[in-house]
Write a structure and sequence with these properties.
OB fold (Dihydrolipoamide Acetyltransferase, E2P), 277 residues, 4 domains, 40% strand, mainly beta
Length: 277
Amino acid sequence: MIKIGQINTLPVTKQTDFGYFLDADDFGSVLLPNKFAPDDIVVGGEVDVMLYFDSDNQLSATTETPIAQVGQWGMMHVVGVNNIGAFVDWGIDKKDLLIPFSNQRVPLHEEQNILVYVYSDSASGRIVGTTKFNKLLDKTPANYEVNQQVELLIAERTDLGFKAIIHGEHWGVIFKSDVFGKLFVGKRLKGYIKAIREDGRINLSLQKIGVAKMDDLSEKVLHVLETKGGFLPLSDKSTPEAIFTVFRTSKGTFKKTIGGLYKQGKIRIEHDGIYLI
């Protein structure tokens, strides 16, 4: 089934002086210009292309990969605003993505970098973007468990911390007290379900909760020590940044973890770092 606004694998049916024609099924033949044709393209073979409608509403093909396909989020740069909305750089040659005014959570301005969701408008068939994420999320009950690992997309900074999109389906919040490392809008990372509140809202953590967190990090510390010859130049005196670079965890959690390993007699802590026993 042909999917407009996404990558499709299409048969190559004909070569001309200006490009290759591809079989787009019910949409007929579509031209892939020479400048986008890969070196190994041959008639009778197949090629992966992005399909979209150009400014003349004609189906076009390109081997360029957009910043986000239909059904995906991506960080995009606002390149212009007119009387129908804002246009963002979609990553496609000579084809910017429209975000109509009705799809803007707040008015957009040129030179902004924003998170955009791309979708195909059911009424017009046009591929457009939106920054109104509330209408896309929390449409189904959140069926998660505490300490479950989830895929996160940082979507917004707030006074409380950061709002993140969970598995592309639900809102969650990472409170300031649970933030470590560098977070920014558009960043994708793994996180954990910290709590599901009575009102259905979800609190998130960037590391496992409680004993599970400590056990997980203990195993990681011992593994890294083994691979590094039994020594790491990290200790409870190291900077949060140095600890995060290696273990992607907070300094507080790291200190508790190596303290537990020390009491168990698995490591020794010296002024220059930790040693495996």
